[in-house]
């Protein structure tokens, strides 16, 4: 197969959702389709038992699938499927956001009983700003949930995206009869657990289905569907691929119901790898020269070896194990000797990979998040990875002042790895750490002790709302402990507002000062 044919088969995506919406359950069903696991329940268990957060190794071990199989891949109906995990729950972090820079599409799972929740909204914003196509699966139809029309309205309003229902549910909870598959022109009948019947629209007038079609729940759904077809937006693949419209499917990941239909439709519509912007213009995924970028660096994945693994998204050409590439940032040659792909709980060595694939390469402390690796004459770099706004902040100091050197070195390396973000007070050298998730601080503290031999003291300054300032508008006297003025790694000024209330008060009183939300500029 040619590079072009291999590339076109790739479907690289992530599943985003709020905790408990059903991401693990859905992932598990997809892995069953891919024959990666044999029975349901294999992936589960990550939440069972509370882990000792003080022990990084334990965290690694117990987080199970979210670490060891950051990427799950399998062939399916002629496609090569790559699912990237987006850690949620306690391990929600910048990595979760950054994973979204390495995918070509996203599946958003919404709990029908809850609608849009906080974490879905945050992850959605990242997809929107990057124009990533989003496919929506409204889950838990086997439970009594909110009205489908109301859920669509909420998606449109809160997320500011057009919706196009690809299926339409008849009832919910105990009254759930199945869904109209608008795209496949069939009714998918729900027969309880693990059983569904596909009835083509043309067959629905047959006597065998008279009970179904005369059921008041079916009739009501049919009327609603007619309304949706008349008043709703037409399906447009072009609008979907540009991120303006989301196709919406209804079902139950647990039953499972509507999952196969959803996945088959999704796989056939989801985009193959697209050209990516670089400092030398747009690079096509079928460019024969290999290129890719590092979107995540993971330390200590294997407790037996103190190794770091860099996760590389292949963007063009063909990767071959042991190949020589260049690190664009320095121009230095590097041999990609150890390479791994992450399947279920094993690390398999891989021999070749193409655009869309994710590989893990051994990192001899040489890589930074966002680094481009490539072969060929041209040295270019892929677009810088966006910075994501942290929410939690803590002051950090070394317990022993004699350890200042290791302290600085440790912080710098961990920051470079993207494990945590670093800020400094606007006029002193005191350090403030920022993170998206609370767990990042504990991991930071543990790694400083174990890898750099430095005990650090952390003093929480709470959840804050960061806003970036334009350099010419910085007036230090306007800020205090409540709304703290700091500098980021690139010496940009940032105000850490105490809360939304303080932010809004400030906005009202200083309408002339531009406050930049990172979600809006990336
Ligand atoms: P997450 O990864 O997004 O956090 O969610 P997960 O799949 O773990 O699902 C969260 C809970 O919701 C689980 O129940 C799961 O069984 C349930 N669930 C997922 N999909 C559906 C669905 O379609 N219908 C119904 N009724 N429930 C669903 P749990 O009680 O927290 O866990 P468990 O005891 O079942 O393992």
Question: What is the secondary structure topology, with strand pairs?
Answer:
Layout: H1 3-9, E1 10-17, H2 23-33, H3 56-62, H4 65-68, E2 71-76, E3 79-84, H5 94-99, E4 105-111, H6 118-129, E5 134-139, H7 148-159, E6 162-165, E7 167-170, E8 178-181, E9 186-190, E10 196-200, H8 210-214, H9 216-231, H10 237-241, E11 245-250, H11 259-269, E12 276-278, E13 281-283, E14 291-299, E15 308-316, E16 318-320, E17 324-327, E18 332-335, E19 339-343, E20 346-349, E21 352-354, E22 358-362, E23 372-374, E24 392-398, H12 404-416, E25 421-425, E26 431-435, H13 439-452, E27 456-463, E28 465-469, E29 484-487, E30 493-497, H14 500-509, E31 515-516, H15 518-521
Parallel strand pairs: 1-3, 1-4, 4-5, 5-11, 6-11
Antiparallel strand pairs: 2-3, 7-8, 8-9, 9-10, 12-13, 14-15, 14-23, 15-22, 16-21, 17-18, 17-23, 19-20, 19-22, 24-26, 24-27, 25-26, 25-29, 28-30, 28-31, 29-30
Helix pairs in contact: 12-13
Bound molecules: guanosine-5',3'-tetraphosphate.
What does the overall shape look like?
globular
Q: How far is the first residue's CA from the last residue's CA?
A: 37 Å
| Counted beta strands | 31
Strand fraction band?
Answer: 25-35%
Q: What does this molecule look like?
A:
The protein has 522 residues and is α+β, with helices and mostly antiparallel strands. It has an eight-stranded antiparallel beta sheet. Strands 27-24-26-25-29-30-28-31 form an eight-stranded antiparallel beta sheet. Strands 2-3-1-4-5-11-6 form a seven-stranded mixed beta sheet, with helices on both faces. It binds guanosine-5',3'-tetraphosphate (G4P). Guanosine-5',3'-tetraphosphate binds at residues 17, 19-25, 44, 139-140, 142-143, 252-255.
